[in-house]
Amino acid sequence: RKDLTMKVRTLGVAFQSGSRLLPLDAYWSINGSSWSRFFFGDGPSVESERVIVERRVQKGDTIRFGARGYSGRSWYPFHSTGRGDDYVVVLKNGDTAPDYAPAYDQGDIVSFLKPYLDASGRVQIGPRDLIILWEASTSSPGSPYFDMQDLVVLVTFE
To answer: What distance in Å separates the CA atoms of residue 19 and residue 57, rounded to the nearest whole number?
Structure first.
């Protein structure tokens, strides 16, 4: 088995209702362990260069990521990787970012991803790395509020 170092960074958060910023709560889990929080906050609290999780992992480990948003009164449903969830998109090197119109005049999803896109709009990250996008509200795909930029996370493996 080969050990790798997993590093997690939050690239951006654009979760709000109207002009009111709302918090997101994000977690990770390895091999079915309990969820560990890696981010809680809103857009202004993001430090995109800061590694917020650094952990040795082994080839074959199962790592999941999940997140939920707060409505101001209660938590929206928890959405996670590994379940075929329409509210989570995992991008790898060479993929094209989804093209959703941002809600509430937020910046385009590409603004969070710009440093990781080539001139043709394809994701340029390492061969083992992932970018994970979340929609944290109850909006349905196709709704003007479904923009897949509520939370954007970069996971690298070295």
So the answer is: 40
Interval 90-133: pLDDT, tens: 999 999 877 654 444 444 444 777 888 888 888 999 999 999 99
Q: Write out pLDDT tens, residues 19-67.
A: 888 999 999 999 999 999 999 999 889 999 999 999 999 989 999 999 9
Q: Is 132 exposed, middle or buried (0-12, 13-18, 19+ CB in 10 A)?
A: buried
Rounded CA separation 42/36 (Å): 18
Q: 64 and 26 in contact (C-beta within 8 Å)?
A: no
Integer angstrom CA distances of residue 45 from 9, 24, 59, 116 = 12, 11, 32, 21
Residue at token pair 């993929």 = 95
Distances (CA, A) of 155 to 19, 28, 52, 64, 141: 29, 11, 10, 11, 25
